[in-house]
Design brief:
The complex is a heterodimer of chains A (252) and B (31). Chain A has six helices and ten strands; from the N terminus they run H-H-E-E-E-E-E-E-H-E-E-E-H-H-E-H. By secondary structure, chain A is α+β, with helices and mostly antiparallel strands. Chain A folds into two domains: 79 residues; 147 residues, no CATH class. In chain A, a hairpin with a 2-residue loop joins strand 2 and strand 3. The mean pLDDT of chain A is 91. By secondary structure, chain B is mostly beta strands. Chain B has no helices and one strand. The termini of chain B are far apart. The model of chain B has no long low-confidence stretch (mean pLDDT 73). The chains are: A alpha+beta (252), B mainly beta (31). At the A-B interface, strand 1, helix 3, strand 7 and strand 8 of A face strand 1 of B.
Chain lengths: 252, 31
């Protein structure tokens, strides 16, 4: 834009010298400037309208997003209630058996190299163990049963040897079944190893870890001769009085 | 082991264990 000073001088000289013919290009350029200023003003008005519309839409979007999140949370809450999903700050307790072999302890599917195990699934995916039936009848997860005595009666007899019975704490996602659980994480907290002639008890985290990592050495160091029925020893050692705490039995 | 029909899901979120306090060294060791 031409400076105010220059425009002022133009007016002064128009008045000072009558008959001064201003070059026609000046008026042409004034017209060209005027047209463009008008276009700029029109576009600026449209930009203002668009900015106001954007602000309004953003405000509406915030409200819609809040409603969307509330709706999803509500739908998830209702689903949890319908499916009786529980929550607990304490581990779920279960029981398991392992077979004693030359190189360590074996569950039904694989060797346990330590006292802790994390679920995996051959189908991959997240939110293990799967609870939508995609794994078939025997779903993924670390298995444990609720009733130690039923487990012993079903898989051993009073004269069975070469196995370990353990109490496990299950955490993360735990899928409950009628007689047991499939868990995301399991940790053995106490165990009794029944060797060919000796029985060895592991009650502390270090002892349990030693049993799983160096089974033969642990049995040699801690084993004592089997006297009487081993089932009684297993049940007495592994079943402790506990207070279950889940969202279901929490007082209202 | 047959654990029967699936009944429900339980989410177990155990409290994290607080770190043990570190005992202050005895004066003799500070010499």
């Amino acid at each position: 834009m031409a400076s105010d000073d220059l425009l002022h001088q133009l007016e002064v000289y128009r008045a000072r010298y009558a008959g001064w013919t201003i070059p026609p290009e000046v008026e042409q350029l004034e017209l060209a400037m005027g047209r463009r200023r008008h276009k700029v003003a029109t576009l600026e008005a449209r930009v203002s309208e668009l900015e106001a519309e954007i602000t309004s839409l953003q405000s509406e979007l915030v409200g819609i997003e809040r409603g969307y999140e509330a709706l999803i949370s509500d739908a998830i809450d209702r689903l949890r209630t319908e499916r009786h999903e529980g929550w607990s700050p304490m581990a779920v307790v279960g029981y398991r058996l392992w077979a004693i072999r030359d190189d360590g302890l074996y569950g039904a599917r694989e060797r346990w190299q330590s006292a802790a195990m994390v679920a995996s699934c051959r189908r991959g995916g997240t939110d293990l163990p799967h609870s939508d039936g995609r794994c078939g009848r025997l779903g993924c997860g670390v298995y444990a049963v609720k009733d130690l005595q039923a487990l012993l009666a079903g898989h051993t007899d009073p004269d069975s040897r070469g196995f370990v019975a353990g109490r496990v704490e299950l955490s993360g996602k735990v899928v409950e079944h009628e007689h047991g659980y499939r868990a995301e994480r399991a940790e053995v907290v106490s165990a009794v190893a029944v060797g060919a002639e000796t029985v060895a008890v592991a009650r502390t985290p270090d002892a349990v870890e030693a049993l799983f990592q160096t089974t033969e050495e642990f049995m040699t160091t801690n084993g004592s001769p089997i006297q009487g029925p081993v089932w009684a020893t297993l049940v007495t050692t592994l079943i402790e009085r506990t207070t279950a705490w889940t969202s279901e039995n929490r007082p209202a | 082991m047959d654990i029967g029909k699936q009944t429900r899901v339980i989410i177990v979120e155990k409290e994290p264990v607080a770190p043990r306090p570190v005992p202050e060294p005895q004066k003799e060791h500070q010499r």
